[in-house]
């Protein structure tokens, strides 16, 4: 919000349709949408990594449980 305030400083916001105000708001919208798009991509990548880690933990847990139930023999993890 501070950036928006700085960008609009000195413009007459009471003038409906003032070209400088419209241009400043358009630039702010473009910058914000670009950053939100980057955030969405980053969150999607993070979710994918969390899923991969969860799958790895689940697989390791399953292997350990199988090894423990196979007679209690000590086996080295591959």
Q: What characteristic shape results from the CA principal axes?
A: rod-shaped
Question: What count of helical segments does DSSP give?
Answer: 2
Task: Count every beta strand, where a strand is a DSSP E run of 2 or more residues.
Answer: 0
- For the record, give the distance between the C-alpha atoms at the N and C termini, rounded to a whole number: 54 Å
Strand content: under 5%
Q: Show unreliable segments.
A: none
Biggest pleated-sheet summary: none
Descriptive account of the structure:
With 78 residues, this protein is an all-alpha fold. It has helices at residues 2-8, 19-69. The two termini are 54 Å apart. The model has no long low-confidence stretch (mean pLDDT 80).
Q: How is this structure best summarized?
A:
By secondary structure, this protein is mostly helical. It is 74% helix and 0% strand.
Q: Could you outline the blueprint of secondary structure elements for this entry?
A:
Elements: H1 2-8, H2 19-69
Task: Label this structure with key terms.
mainly alpha; 2 helices; 0% strand
